[in-house]
Design brief:
heterodimer, A: mainly alpha, Cytochrome C Oxidase, Chain A, two-stranded antiparallel sheet, B: Immunoglobulin-like, five-stranded mixed β-sheet, 12 strands, 36% helix, 23% strand, elongated, binds copper (II) ion
């Protein structure tokens, strides 16, 4: 007999004293507890990362503003801010929250599994991730300061301690942190894959898997491939730093007066290894959000997902192409120009499955009169930001244009819109949508986040996101490079403004606007934090399926409230693909909408549903 | 050209331009700095074409999204080929055409090297300065040796005095070039990766330690231009810039003669 979902054996029910409860919460192997732990970690990380980005923006337009308790921001401080902001956001927010956080919370329930495949490994992954974050943050306080070579850590800068601040102990800690993170991510992805492969319930065939599960599945595959390469690269760099090897150091490299005479390595090897990881990484961050968006658009439009099978294919195709085109980060890095052409063409190719996804989303909501609940708004926002950020992808994929745009704010705008903003919108959609499942315990039913606050939060965030990142395209086109802590005051001969100072000072008015917009965008997130804090205690009690969803996580027995005794937990089986609604009966508030969850055995009409037969997963 | 007509016809963007920017150095509503190179015009046209296409697709997709949300409810869309495969095929063709054009431009600037008559200059990136070495009358660069590098003694590149070719080499902190003559740059880095970039020449290429990378272009308009470092290279990254001075050919000859005379 499988233990019931809500009371796994490893986690005894709250006793009278606090310490066993605390210990149960901290060292739980229950995937839902671990999922919450990951989300709390990501929340802490996103707050820190956002504050760091605000400091950067403020320094950029008011360089003389002294940071409280610190004083003026020095060039190395600015670069440390950039580095930690990028590392924290990419790894500890955009990788952790959708994949490990919501993956643990929702994925098992969506496939009808009672638990993850390897609960102990799952807990170990979380604690490794938490240790990685602590190590990263601690690097701020070591002599020499935190690493300053950006999240890409290109050698020789990162390989030689003499190359500047942050490259000694700070860089070692950075590498240790990311190595631990890579191990944790690989373990967690193996867990995800095994769970999807082995723990699907009766009738959950591949074609009936919700698209979110396909997103998690593809992201997990990419994680295993990409993070293992990153781990290898980090080990090589460690050897270069401490064991006298020279994988990434050419002979005769002279850094700060110290001559390197070892073997003949090449920094380009690091770029290849790093971007072989770095490019799939952005798909790892965005694929779960793409899957969720598909499901939410269908849910709130009471429609099927348009071209469901194509959506599965494009998800896999994006994953496959995603690991083949790392070289488009290296058009000006010193590759053979013919290689750039090959990478350019493969990058243009990935625009097609991505466009197919957008077309499917547009078709799903076309003339659907959806209900505009907050999760739906964020899903629509995801579509908009994905489009806006995605459309500059093909521009950057052309080497001749990248020659001008590479490492300018045009690139910063591109990836922040598509990965950071669309990624965050996916996370917000997930939070608003699954909040009842996040908050339900055996003691009380789940709650909903406030809708009016959610609407306000959505509109402010959408407006803020566009206000911050659209103008960055223009400062990039005007020539503003990334990683510049200062845009003016670069003196030329005779105290006049140098040509560089003159060129870059053009972007100052726009940069001021971007900084104001960034402060607005960050402030608007307080609405969400307030909503979160308030709704945890006072939120409206949710029914067992508040959004009339069709996927299994909303099955009454998957909801921990009211708790079912183990013997009464029904065997779940799945009878159809998700997102089956009866559109002709749809009227927004008056009549109850006909929808057919995956677990309901009876179809509305036989001719409406094509696959009602039970099939076992192979 | 279609795109340049589009460019100047776009009134709202022009208003924005007058609002934010006062300057003749910037042209086009997209805030591109003025181009002063021979290959830059074609690049700019292609870039502007791409930007307008992206903007048009963005507007179109959002329009479809809005109309789809506002229109009366209707039964589900079913004709797969018309709303899935037809637009996909159109996009595939569009992207293929853009790729093809971009590849031709890329090939013309990168697949082959400079002509043998091009002016030779070596560019070296060092934390946090650019050095420009001219080969002198013998047209040959002398050997350098990293163990001889001594910036304090006026030898930042480690020129070896035993090599006869290095006797007439001279090093400048400013890149001075004649207008309308092709230049063949040999790009090197002494310590870490640097990004050699001249926005107004539409030029960017990383300088990688251990590699010599050739880059060729023809400047057209005399003037001074910014040379930036665009690859994060340490704490002085933001101030690692230099000046490119484009002179009319006769003035360049005078400058070169003076420098060669001053060289030891
Ligand atoms: Cu540099
Ligand atoms: Cu630099």
């Amino acid at each position: 007999m499988t233990p019931p979902f809500n009371t796994p054996p490893a986690q005894p029910h709250p006793a009278s004293s606090t310490s066993p409860r605390l210990r149960a919460a901290l060292f739980s192997t229950d995937h839902r507890v671990i999922g919450i732990q990951y989300l709390v970690l990501a929340l802490i990380a996103v707050v820190i990362g956002t504050l760091l980005s605000l400091l950067m923006r403020i320094h950029l337009v008011w360089p003389d503003w002294p940071l409280p308790l610190h004083g003026p921001i020095l060039p190395e401080d600015y670069l440390a801010l950039v580095t930690i902001h990028g590392t924290i956001m990419l790894f500890f927010v955009l990788t952790t929250a959708p994949q490990a956080g919501f993956g643990n919370l929702i994925l098992p329930a969506q496939i009808g599994a009672r638990s993850m495949a390897f609960p102990a490994l799952n807990a170990a992954s979380f604690w490794l991730t938490a240790a990685a974050l602590l190590i990263l943050l601690s690097s701020t306080f070591v002599p020499g300061g935190a690493a300053i070579s950006g999240w890409t850590a290109y050698p020789p800068l990162s390989a030689v301690a003499s190359s500047g601040p942050g490259q000694a102990l700070g860089m070692d800690l950075w590498l240790t942190s990311i190595a631990l993170f890579a191990i944790a991510s690989t373990a967690s992805s193996i867990n995800t894959l095994t769970t999807i492969l082995r723990n699907r319930c009766h009738g959950m065939t591949w074609e009936r898997l919700p698209l979110t599960v396909w997103g998690w599945f593809t992201a997990a595959l990419l994680s295993i491939i990409a993070f293992s390469v990153l781990l290898a690269a980090i080990l090589l760099l460690f050897c270069d730093r401490h064991a006298g090897t020279s994988f990434f150091l050419p002979t005769g490299d002279l850094v700060n007066g110290i001559l390197h005479q070892g073997g003949n390595g090449s920094p380009l090897l690091w770029l290849h290894l790093f971007w072989f990881f770095g490019h799939p990484e952005v798909y790892i961050a965005i694929l779960p959000g793409m899957g969720l968006t598909s499901m939410l658009l269908a849910n709130f439009s009471h429609r099927r997902v348009f071209a469901y099978r194509t959506m599965i294919t494009t998800t896999l195709l994006i994953g496959l192409l995603g690991i083949l085109l790392w070289g488009h980060h290296m058009f000006v890095a010193g590759l053979n120009p013919f290689a750039s052409s090959a990478f350019s063409i493969s990058t243009m190719a990935i625009a097609l499955p991505a466009a197919a996804k957008v077309l499917s989303w547009l078709a799903t909501i076309w003339r659907s009169r959806p209900s505009y609940k907050t999760p739906m708004l964020f899903a629509l926002g995801f579509v908009s930001l994905f489009l806006t950020g995605g459309l500059t992808g093909p521009i950057l994929a052309q080497p001749i244009l990248d020659e001008y745009l590479h490492n300018t704010f045009f690139v910063v705008a591109h990836f922040h819109l598509i990965m950071a903003m669309a990624g965050i919108f996916g996370l917000y959609a997930a939070t608003y949508y699954w909040f009842p499942l996040l908050t339900a315990t055996s003691q009380h039913p789940g709650r909903l986040l406030s809708e009016p606050l959610g609407h306000l939060h959505f509109w402010c965030t959408l407006l803020g996101a566009y206000a911050v990142f659209l103008p960055m395209h223009l400062t990039g086109l005007a020539g503003e490079p990334r990683h510049y802590g200062q845009l003016t005051g670069i003196p030329g001969p005779g105290g006049s403004l140098s040509p560089a100072g003159a060129l870059l000072s053009h972007t100052l008015p726009l940069n001021r606007f971007i900084t104001y917009a960034a402060i607005f965008l960050a402030t608007a997130q307080l609405i969400f934090l307030f909503n979160l804090a308030r709704s945890l205690r006072k939120g409206k009690i949710a029914s067992s399926n508040p959004w009339q969803a069709t996927t299994l996580e909303w099955h009454p027995s998957m909801n921990p409230f009211p708790p079912l005794p183990a013997s009464d937990t029904p065997e779940i089986s799945v009878h159809r693909a998700p997102c089956h609604y009866q559109p002709c009966h749809y009227q927004s508030n008056k009549v109850e909408v006909s929808f057919l969850p995956q677990w309901a055995p009876i179809p509305f009409e036989q001719d409406e549903i094509e696959d009602v037969t039970d099939t076992k997963p192979e | 050209m279609i795109c340049s007509r589009l460019t100047s016809a776009c009134l709202p963007s022009l208003c924005l331009r007058s609002l934010w920017l006062d300057h003749a150095a910037i042209r086009s509503p997209w805030l591109l700095p003025r181009d002063a190179s021979a290959h830059g015009l074609a690049l700019d046209h292609h870039l502007l074409l791409n930007l307008w296409i992206a903007l048009a697709l963005l507007a179109l997709a959002h329009l479809i999204l809005l109309i789809g949300l506002l229109a009366r409810r209707h039964s589900e869309p079913t004709q797969l080929w018309r709303i899935e495969y037809l637009p996909l095929a159109a996009l595939a063709l569009l992207f293929a055409a853009l790729t093809l054009k971009a590849e031709r431009l890329w090939a013309s600037s990168r697949y082959t090297g400079a002509s043998p008559t091009a002016l030779q200059v070596e560019v070296t990136g060092v934390q946090f300065a650019w050095y420009f070495r001219y080969p002198g009358p013998d047209a040959t660069f002398g050997l350098t040796n990293p163990s001889l590098v001594a910036p304090g003694e006026g030898n930042p590149l480690g020129l070896s005095s035993t090599d006869p070719h290095s006797a007439d080499d001279f090093v400048s902190s400013q890149l001075v070039l004649p207008a309308n003559r092709e230049v063949d740059l040999r790009l090197r880095a002494q310590d870490v990766i640097h990004g050699f970039s001249i926005p107004e020449m539409r030029l960017k290429q990383n300088a990688v330690p251990g590699q010599t990378i050739h880059l060729h272009f023809t400047p057209t308009t005399p003037g001074t231009y910014a040379i930036l470092c665009t690859q994060l290279c340490g704490l002085g990254h933001y101030r690692m810039n230099a000046t490119l001075l484009i002179l009319p050919p006769d003035q360049f000859a005078t400058w070169l003669a003076a420098k060669q005379k001053a060289a030891p």
